[in-house]
């Protein structure tokens, strides 16, 4: 049998964990021929709940599931990890200031980054889902100086999928007919879903929708979808977030083909995004790595919105720097 791939999932006993682990174990992350060993990293108080999830994973008798370990220290959790999905994070509670939130998450993602640096496998790939995802990814990456910087991503694939779905509904076209949408910037309400290079059944999307709809309907709907789900469900998106994490890693490892997708990856300075910020870009993947799609024309409508989201990311980076978290 092929050597199993070690997949670490943090926050494994949480909502997203519950939607994610079964998809990984069934082969949807890495394909039907790749056995996986799951490493569930939780805080000690949630280990019992993680054990319950592991019992259910056992009860599925997934042929590709080579084993499950439940761990409560980052060192053990990331030992030998090939893929790490960092889902567990400190949510914002009532009255919490932004600095407090960044600091609380720095206390999680700094040590996790160090443990990844010291104990993960040399081919480690890290996807940060826990919010504030881009800046948590930056914190983890900055604590892992021996890991190539491009192995740290943050998830904007859920935003990308939301944008696909909204455009499909507006134009009465199946999502499979839409290509080359982009999410730029931060996974936050400032993100910019860009349709100016997208095609809908081969036609430019910009011929099918007008700027008023983009500005007043599409962009706010996509950017505030997370809050709308929290309002409706009383809890943040879970199954759709897990689905997006599967999409992201599957494409990162397996490649995208000619159409592009969106992922928050360390900027190389493309499109005026300061180098090092973990910002969402149009990306393709080949040979196990992302490449930013180059040469796209950015109009004034897009430029202002990309700049606003990138400015927010730079502000978060400066704040964590001032707090001594990076
Ligand atoms: P949840 O509260 O149901 O679960 C979080 C889990 O993380 C809990 O089981 C908790 O015990 C665990 N945890 C906390 N600190 C940990 C640590 N230091 N190490 C290991 N585990 C730890 O939350 P959820 O609904 O699963 O969401 C998780 C995160 O994902 C939240 O930050 C949420 O905002 C974020 N999220 C991001 C996206 C995205 O698109 N990027 C979408 C949805 C949710
Ligand atoms: C989402 O986009 O659904 C989440 O990031 C929302 C949240 O704050 O958990």
Automatic annotation (TrEMBL):
The keyword NAD applies. Substrate binds at residues 92, 98, 131, 162. Keywords: NAD, Oxidoreductase, Tricarboxylic acid cycle. Residues 156-318 form the Lactate/malate dehydrogenase C-terminal domain. The active site is at residue 187. HAMAP family: Malate_dehydrog_2. Belongs to the LDH/MDH superfamily. MDH type 2 family. This is Malate dehydrogenase. The gene is mdh.
